[in-house]
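Hey all, quick one. A colleague (J.T.) asked me to put the adenosine monophosphate job into the tracker so the inputs and the structure tokens live in one place instead of scattered across chat threads. No bug as far as I know, just bookkeeping. Sequence used:
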Amino acid sequence: MSKISFADYRLSPEIVRALEGLGYTEPTEVQREVIPAALEKKDLTVKSQTGSGKTAAFGIPICELVEWEENKPQALILTPTRELADQVKEDITNIGRFKRIKATAVYGKQPFARQKAELKQKSHVVTGTPGRVLDHIEKGTLDLSRMKYLVLDEADEMLNMGFIDQVEAIINELPKNRMTMLFSATLPEDVEKLCYKYMKSPVDIEIQSKVSTADRIDHSLFIVREEEKFQLLKDVTIVENPDSCIIFCRTQEQVDRIYQQLDRLDYPCDKIHGGMSQDDRFAVMNEFKRGEFRYLVATDVAARGIDIENITHVINYDLPMEKESYVHRAGRTGRAGRTGKAISFVTPYEEKFLSDIEAYIGLDIQRKDAPSKEEVSTKKDEFEEKLNSMPELKADKNEQLNQEIMKLYFNGGKKKKIRAVDFVGTIAKIEGVNAEDIGIITIQDNVSYVDILNGKGPLVLKEMKRTTVKGKQLKVHEAFKK
Ligand code: AMP
């Protein structure tokens, strides 16, 4: 059988080109199932794990289907966490780069006014957490009249986090004539109810999750008393010597405690939990993504949908209470075809949770004895060596893409009656530049930003210093990146 490529779908050249740039050569399993059905605007319920390429599975058809000319938002993507909202926005921006799709993320703990100003601009796609999205709807700052596509991403998590009422309130505000796609790692009863209630004879797609969990992730566990966990953590990390590891704890206090203890032992580590400010959470996540430290101590906040490459180990310092969380946590490793290990610490009192988890994932998790003293001491040198060596930094896929892109700032916008077409008309006339080299254009009241693609930024910058836009000479310089 010949391989399917993205060019086999009815996708415009701008989207195919962006996918090439992202290094997506062939669709993943979930994309093979979802893209053709979504392009036909069918309602879909998709059971699949994060790490399967599900964001692009809905991102590609959405970027294809939205009409560039429409000024009001056409697609709404609801996610359980702010990090995921932001990541989905990035993914959509990358996929829609050459079609100049503008995506905006809205979530709590960030100034409402800033988001309001961004929503006033042309936004094709809006991503966000239910609470803040509802806030914008109620205050009239998010126009739903042209919404044609709704995605409920990680629906099970949204329900787990108690967002059901807000999600339903949002759905009730949306035009009836829309397409809805629901993605969920698991399909608990409440999620199914949501599907029946709000979707039109949805196509059910199920991607075999067991294969990916069992084949790519090596699950094991230690039975251990609470007071012996930290010693076990030290021994396990020495023996396993991970390149990149998330240690999950049940509470914020526990995260703080374990982080402090590891930090004192000079582990290259940091922490993340819901009690930290959003800016701090983003900063920690970005540093971890780049591989600046090896151990991230986290609550479940970090388990939801976050896409970080090459996490080799997930350690459940505390076993999750919900079986679904186990799947989410373990799914942080073994991504994009790689292998990984999920190691759980289970206290004797937690056997019940454990049997729920095992039944749920359809796997008997291998029980192991704590590493012996001899084993720990033979592995110690190697461990110390890695502890003291700088991790190799991972290239951020956005940074790679952005190298080819220069964002230009102009000191004129709506108040000077400047529109996107004015920039396109002017810039595309520069010799050696054409409309395909122009990316996302953002026009605000007094300033505008234009992305110049394909390494043509310096040329456009030079020329625009002596070229007028709509008869006006604007100040131009490279924008300071947000
Ligand atoms: P997700 O399930 O959306 O969190 O995606 C998991 C990872 O797979 C992300 O790093 C994507 O960039 C990557 N990915 C998505 N689709 C493809 C594809 N067709 N080929 C290669 N990598 C992909």
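Adding what we noticed when we looked at it: Residues 24, 27-28, 31, 50-56, 307, 335-336 surround adenosine monophosphate (CB under 6 Å). The longest helix spans residues 373-388.
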